Amino acid sequence: MLYILLMATHYHAFSRPGYLEYTSLRLVYDLAQMDLEGWIPMRGGLTALVNDETKKALDQLRGFVIHDAKSIHEIKDLSRMEGWGEPEVHIPPRFPNRARSSGIEYKVEEMIHATCDVGVPKQMIYENCVRSVLQDLANKIERPDHILRTPLEVGLHVSTQNHRKQRENAVETRGLATPI
To answer: Domain ranges in the chain?
Structure first.
């Protein structure tokens, strides 16, 4: 999926035994990659190129812990074989503390590896989400001019797409596994 300034991959399924189920969400930004875990994301990992300002802002987030930080001058671009062009994060001496991504040059000082954890039980998050959606719907009923945060048409569209994909997958995988 491609969003403005964000690339994301999603995977979600509840078709296997619980101990094999895993839901993941990867968000890819110009200077960061975040991997979230869980149907309701409870924790995640972040790798990012930061400057002092962004590092301070991230450090203010509840449950956010930086485990490793390296100067931009200590990291190497291992994505390309030698001689295959200049790496995007190459920092020429005349432009100290800069990285280029998607054709945009950014001021960066370090690469960090961090984790985040919401620190509350999944049940509490789920309850708050359901409560919020129901409150939004009640607001619409009480005040018809209220704009729903998630219109019902969006849910119906997503549900229809998911149902169609499940039918396609069932046809594609028929005969690959024999139920016990």
So the answer is: 1-118, 121-180
